[in-house]
Amino acid sequence: MLGTQAKTLLRCYSTEASPAIRSTLLLQRKPIITADQPAFQKSFYRYQKELWKRLMWTFPKWFWFRPGTVSELRFRELNKRPFYNNPNVEFVGGRPDVQHNRDRRHKQVVKLPQTYDDKSKEVDELSRRIVPNSRTTQADKNNDLMSLERKLARTLYLLVSQDGKKWNFPSFAINGSPLHQAAEEGLYSIAGKQLNYFNVSKKPCHVHNSPNEKSFFIKSYLLSGQFDVKDSGLKHLWLTKEEVGQHLDKDYYQEVEHLLNEI
C-alpha cells in the first residue's frame, strides 16, 4: 500500500504577482504640408520646367501687337531682337538657333509694356499677388519642442516626463477599462477635452514587456484642437522620429522604431 504522503496531492501556487497592464498612447500629429523635396528631386523638377519653357510655342507678337502701332513700338523697345547666326562671327557660348525672332537655346522671356500706373490702381483681395507662406514657422526658429506648429512637413509624436530627464510615451493604468478607453481617458486627463483625435484601432499595435508590467500601444492621430497640459509638473514634447530616438532609451527605441513614420 502506498503511504499517506504518496496519496496526498500537493498543489503549488505561484506567489509571484502578475505584471500590471497599462495602455500606452502613441499619439501623433500628421504632416500638415507636403514633404520637403530632396536636392535631386528639386533639380529634376527644375530641369523639366526649364525644358518645357524652351519647347513651348513662341509668343505671337503679331497677334497682340499690330505692326506699325505705338504698342508694337513699345514692345520692341522692351524686347530686343536676338543675334542671328552669322557664319563670319565666332560665338563663344555656341551658335544661336533663331526662329521667329527667338533664340531657341534659351527660354523666351517676354516683357510687356505697361499700359497703366500700378500705384494709382487699388488692388483688391482677389487681384493681389499670391505669396505662399514660409515653410519654416516661428516655432522652428525658436526651436520650441513643445509647440505643435513646428516641423509642419513631418510627423510629430508626444513624449512626456515628470522630471524632464526620463522621457516616454504617455502610459496609463487601465483600472478595469478597455485599452483604447483607458488611453482616451488618460489623454483627456493630460490635455483636457478641447481637442479632436481618433484611434486607429481598438486593438493594440505593439506590446512592450517589462518585469513588472505589460504596455499595450494604442495608435492615435491628433486632428485639431487645443493641446494644453493641465499638470504644471508634467513636461511634454512634440518630436520627430529622429528626435524621439534621442530622448528614449536605446533598447526601448529599437523595439518601437518600426511604429514611427519616416516622414
Automatic annotation (TrEMBL):
Origin: domain of life: Eukaryota
Gene3D superfamilies noted in UniProt: Nucleoside Triphosphate Pyrophosphohydrolase (3.90.79.10)
Protein name, entry field: Large ribosomal subunit protein mL46
The entry's keywords: Mitochondrion, Ribonucleoprotein, Ribosomal protein, Transit peptide
Family: Belongs to the mitochondrion-specific ribosomal protein mL46 family.
Organism: Candidozyma haemuli
GO MF term set: structural constituent of ribosome
Domain Large ribosomal subunit protein mL46 N-terminal: 20-140
InterPro entries documented for this protein: Ribosomal_mL46, Ribosomal_mL46_N, Ribosomal_mL46_NUDIX
Subcellular location: Mitochondrion
One Gene Ontology cellular component: mitochondrial large ribosomal subunit
